[in-house]
TrEMBL record:
Localisation: Glycosome
Protein name, UniProt field: Glycerol-3-phosphate dehydrogenase [NAD(+)]
Domain Glycerol-3-phosphate dehydrogenase NAD-dependent C-terminal: 244-384
EC number: 1.1.1.8
Source species, domain of life: Eukaryota
Length: 405
């Protein structure tokens, strides 16, 4: 990990002979413009979390990203602005070399060029060696398999380095009904984890377009530490800290299923009124499952919940929305899957989400109908009629400003 040092301290170091710099310290300039940034990074231990100031960004020597898909690549580009080097793990060495040579993730994120300090590799140990932060963005259904093979070695590194671990994978594991951070927690017992969630299309993140996300940890100081690492100086990528890890993971999984529902609605010929209703009622489904699983609800109406749901349900950049639209147009899921290289996460999530909600006796009207379309071959039009024909009742929202007694 790295210590954030005020400029006045750094100026003393710089004034020393060059041989002192190179033999006693390793230091480097942050990879963003230095205007209004009063802190540099040195390869020394970080101060206690309680002593960190929320205006002091943290720059690191090296970052490790496990997961080479579109989202993993885009977050690597963010880290490239905050770290001297970034390693992205990809399971196939020949493909990793192809990406490095092209300076573009030609497999999963065509277009944006990779910064020169990002390297793709199939070497797990080389990826996390000297890392000041580790990100997991491996697809949820494959996360456990990766950790069974490599988790013990990574955990040994973590016990010595005490660096932040940020879980960015989304979904629900089919075999256990667990969320990604819960899976990672099995392999890193008693280790403090954080979760990243929020409206963040990979292509826009990689292109440096304005993006705000939430970083959640049960310990707010840890969430703030990760916030300072991941946020860029120009705030084009900005994190907000929260403690609702459960809410963030529930929202990140459910929004993909609800985005399929939104796409189906469009495919059936419905308009913006229907979409707005689906987003509003879908958000309450996120709220209800978050409450049942023990979340504190901070994330539901924030970036991870409302923000990401609005984005994913409203744009054809979303693979989940596109899949839903095709379903609404009468194309079967089998036919859709034949033409897609990257699987829409909501397709894999709908089935375990249905079982998880049933296990906790939570009614998810729209998510249940998506499950019935994908896994029970229910006609999309019939499914939407069923979702709309529910019993007339109160909206179910508590007043924000209760009347004074």
């Amino acid at each position: 990990m790295l210590l954030v040092v005020p400029l006045r301290v750094l100026s003393i170091i710089i004034s020393l002979p060059l041989s002192f710099h190179t033999h006693s310290f390793f230091f480097f300039l942050p990879f963003e413009p230095l205007a209004k940034v009063s802190f540099f990074a040195l390869s020394l231990p970080l101060p206690p979390l309680s002593q960190m100031k929320l205006d002091d960004l943290i720059y690191l020597e090296h970052a490790a990203v496990f997961g080479s898909g579109a989202f993993g690549t885009s977050l690597a580009t963010v880290l490239a602005r905050k770290c001297k080097t970034v390693s992205v793990w990809h399971m196939n060495e020949a493909e990793a070399k192809r990406i490095n040579d092209a300076r573009e993730n030609v497999l999963f994120l065509k277009g944006p060029k990779l910064p020169p300090n990002i390297t793709f590799t199939s070497d797990v140990a080389a990826t996390y060696k000297n890392a000041g932060i580790i990100l997991f963005i491996i697809p949820t259904q494959f996360l456990r398999g990766f950790l069974k093979q490599h988790g013990a070695a990574i955990f040994e590194f973590l016990k010595k380095a005490h660096v932040p671990v940020l879980v960015c994978s989304k979904g629900i594991e089919k075999s256990t009904l667990k969320f990604p951070a819960q899976i990672v927690g099995e392999f890193f017992p008693q280790y403090r984890l954080s979760v990243l969630a929020g409206p963040s299309f990979a292509i826009e993140v990689a292109e440096g377009k304005l993006t705000n996300v939430a970083v959640a940890s049960e310990n707010i100081a840890e969430a703030r530490r990760v916030m300072l690492i991941m946020s860029t100086k120009d705030r084009m990528f900005r994190c907000w800290a929260t403690t609702d890890t459960i809410g963030c993971e529930v929202a990140s999984a459910m929004k993909n299923v609800l985005a399929i529902a939104s796409g189906i609605s469009k495919g059936l010929g419905n308009g913006y009124n229907a979409r707005a209703a689906l987003i509003s009622r879908g958000l309450l489904e996120i709220r209800d499952l978050t409450r049942a699983l023990g979340g504190n609800g901070e994330a539901v109406f924030g970036l991870a919940g409302l923000g990401d749901l609005m984005l994913t349900c409203s744009s054809e950049l979303s693979r989940n929305f596109s899949v839903g639209q095709k379903l609404g147009q009468g194309i079967t899921i089998a036919e859709i899957m034949k033409t897609q290289k990257a699987v829409a996460e909501g397709v894999a999530t709908a089935e375990p989400l249905y079982r998880l909600a049933k296990q906790h006796n939570v009614k998810l009207r729209f998510c249940k109908e998506v499950y019935s379309i994908l896994y029970q071959n229910k006609n999309p039009r019939d499914a939407f009629r069923a979702a709309s024909k529910g019993k007339l009742t109160d909206e179910g929202l508590p007043p924000l400003f209760p009347a004074k007694l």
